[in-house]
Amino acid sequence: MATTEPTTPTTALPLGATVHVGSDAAREWWRDAVIYQVYPRSFADGDGDGIGDIPGITSKLDHLKNLGVDAVWLSPFYRSPQKDAGYDVADYRDVDPLFGTLADFDTMLAGAHDRGMRVIVDLVPNHTSDQHAWFQEALAAAPGSPERARYVFRDGRGPAGDEPPNNWQSIFGGPAWTRLAASSTAAGDAYDEPSPQWYLHLFDSSQPDLDWTQPEVRSEFEDVLRFWLDRGVDGFRVDVAHGMIKADGLPDWDGHVAMVEGSSDGDDAQATDPGAPEDGSTGAGNQGPMFDQDGVHEIYRDWHRVLAAYEGDRCLVAEAWVEPLSRLARYVRPDEMHQAFNFSFLTTGWDAAALRRVVAASYRANDEVGAPTTWVLSNHDVVRHATRLGLPDAGVRPNGVFATDPQPDEELGLRRARAASLLMLGLPGSAYLYQGEELGLPEHTTLPNEVRQDPGHFRTDGAEAGRDGCRVPLPWQADAPGYGFGPTGATWLPQPDSYGRYAADVQYGDPTSTFELYRAALDTRRAEGLGHGGLTWLADHADAADVVALRNRDVVVLANLGSTPVELPAGHEVLLASGPVDTTLPADTTVWLRA
Ligand code: GLC
């Protein structure tokens, strides 16, 4: 690339359309916060059992402080049989012994607060674990009982009731209904034969869906919110926030339901398809009578009131795979939640035109309701962006990568990931980081199938690799067993050999490292007020097909997504760059300039 003649010469920085106006008004902290997702079982292990835990998190708070994030979001650490890595909650008011105790939680929370960082916890309201006391009571109770009414039990179809009540599929694969066996229901059903009753689970059969039309379910969860608010948490990430209310009558639906949504035609289609939606949609939204029903909004209006009764700016962030962005914005209307993950952005391919479209559409939708946009590139459900952007077909968003699949170009993936992150962190709004991305960590793409644990792998009979590859324990020390994940070297999933190169300790203080790039970006972002700045496209670059070019306050952000270097405007100080730059901006590189 470096030997190719630069194209698109640019010496001036003329302004084009303004798509978002900044503000210096007093604002709630979450409006421009950088929030770091900790996936507890894979972050840091304090007790040496190979599974991360809360004392492990406490021991690494200085890493997060040093990185410069404003808040931490913890994936579930509640009592759980861990059938879906804790997203199957058996007791919403206790810490699973695997992760520690409530006292450990309080220590961690105080440690974060002492360092000026907020803490958001995960709330899983769509379903409980089948080991939750309520579900056990439901099994023991009779059909039609109040205990069964907390969940979605229905009689099966067909004369013998041996067909599921409707045709819905689980997001993890297979039917979304499980029939009660005679043995599990003898007390309640008093049948010798299998019960005619089935229960709904949009996810694994160990995750029965709650019936949110029941007042008791609503009051229970308001109480759970208060339990954690009283302990001092700063907010909640709400799991499957678009799924709790189902269409009346649970009508059949023949559409596609899967863990992995999104267009598999990917970025090429987005770039060249003249019909590519201006609204930034990528196909990432879940559809059907089980998602995004209008009734969910009433729940969030209630929860908004619960949070508002507490001091400080507590917040709710929606995990809602909903498109278009204008529809997602309904979750963050002034009396509902405060933020929603922007999965249209996450699922947009490495394509300048598509990124410009989704960025503009995000501001259009959220400015309308007065909510901040959020930006996110990786989380515990998707292939890490350092790998995604290096896959042979960068447009595809697979559900994990098998060892037998075409493997990513690691160097290209890292270069693009650094460029993508620097672009993201230059945008006004709030940004979510997933643990390890500050190290440039790739997915484990050669995990042996025998070690996989994601229910999505098993429920598809091994057709999908699943999400384990993005959940591999973090490398903290290059030269320690288990790369310093814990005191014994044990890790619940094997780490690839490459993780030594990415270990945190070899990155600290190295100005070329990804950790130092993130640290500098967060520092500059704060100093320049970029999180609450505005966004104006730069006309010349906006016309250049492969360059995303924008101005946010006194900073110009240029990202070259093309394959040829672009001449940098003369006379502008380079504040930060995702890779080496001279007078040109190489391919797959982002730069921040002083405007
Ligand atoms: C959300 C979580 C995912 C989990 C699912 C079921 O999508 O992010 O990890 O498997 O909900 O709770």
SSE layout:
Layout: E1 15-20, E2 34-38, H1 40-43, H2 54-59, H3 61-67, E3 71-74, E4 78-79, E5 91-95, H4 102-114, E6 118-123, H5 133-140, H6 146-149, E7 153-155, E8 177-179, H7 182-189, E9 197-200, H8 215-231, E10 235-238, H9 266-272, H10 296-308, E11 315-318, H11 325-328, E12 339-340, H12 343-346, H13 352-369, E13 374-376, H14 385-388, H15 410-425, E14 430-434, H16 455-459, H17 499-502, H18 504-507, H19 514-527, E15 535-538, H20 539-543, E16 547-552, E17 555-560, E18 566-567, E19 574-577, E20 584-585, E21 589-594
Parallel strand pairs: 2-3, 2-14, 3-6, 6-10, 10-11, 11-12, 13-14
Antiparallel strand pairs: 1-15, 4-5, 7-9, 8-9, 15-16, 16-17, 17-21, 18-20, 19-21
Helix pairs in contact: 8-10, 15-19
The structure holds alpha-D-glucopyranose.
Alpha-D-glucopyranose is lined by residues 84, 87, 124, 203, 239-240, 319, 380-381.
In short:
This protein is of the alpha/beta class and about 600 residues long. It is about 30% helix and about 15% strand. About 55% of the residues are buried.
How would you characterize this protein structure?
With 595 residues, the chain is an alpha/beta fold. It folds into three domains: 1-23 and 534-595, Sandwich (Immunoglobulin-like), CATH 2.60.40; 26-128 and 215-522, TIM Barrel (Alpha-Beta Barrel), CATH 3.20.20.80; 133-200, Oligo-1,6-glucosidase, Domain 2 (Oligo-1,6-glucosidase, domain 2). It has 20 helices and 21 strands. The strands form five sheets. Strands 12-11-10-6-3-2-14-13 form an eight-stranded parallel β-sheet. The chain has a six-stranded antiparallel β-sheet with strand order 1-15-16-17-21-19. Helix 11 (325-328) links the parallel strand 11 (315-318) and strand 12. Helix 8 runs parallel beside helix 10 (296-308). The radius of gyration is 24 Å and the shape is globular. The chain starts with 14 loop residues before the first strand and ends with a strand. The structure holds alpha-D-glucopyranose (GLC). Alpha-D-glucopyranose (GLC) binds at residues 84, 87, 124, 203, 239-240, 319, 380-381.
